[in-house]
Fold Phosphatidylserine decarboxylase proenzyme.
Amino acid sequence: MLDFQNKPIFADNFYSKNKTTYMSRLKKLKKIRIHREGTHTLAGSLLLLLVVNSALYFGLECKLPFYIVAVVSIVLYGMLVNFFRCPIRLFGQEDTEKIVVAPADGRIVVIEEVDENEYFHDRRLMISIFMSVINVHANWYPVDGTVKKVAHHNGKFMKAWLPKASTDNERSTVVIETPEGVEVMARQIAGAMARRIVTYAEPGEDCYIDEHMGFIKFGSRVDVYLPLGTEVFVKMGQTTTGNQTVIAKLK
């Protein structure tokens, strides 16, 4: 049995008995340091900054403007690289039955029962994680299972932490059925700055908590909808680490 008494719960708690398996899986995992969604953005930004700085350096006799712009360029590009960083992570536990992990880095902003009217049409427990611009913006599957539904909805771009953002903002919905037959829904929500949601899930494919479900560019939110009665292991305001923090356990 897994011990869920110490909160928050991280994969490291389960690591010791599975060290050999963990290391072998880690070696097989593609080592992505920069997320693929940032490749073109970073390349284009670097080219633009090089052109601007070169023009200033060779076009001005006074080099002070060049030095100022160069420093600003380095800072801005560093922020972009930081945003698109993609840490190598594995949950580190073979038995993931009934475990629900955080699908994103961020902060818990909602834990409440809500009426879910897109797919379930009943009452569900919703746990929401808000991602600021400094968080990793890759999203992981919250559970192992099979993808049952994927849907994208156009909408507004309100601040992601507002309650109405779950239903009014642009969003993508992924429904996953666990091996035990429990359906869990994850919803990627665009925010005031996030204007592009990327979802990799495809209906009918198997998914695992060590895989990326998608990516949201710049400040956003992910909601997880669970059956009522699910045991919750996080609290309001708590920070989460995607693919590492155990947020709940299904009945």
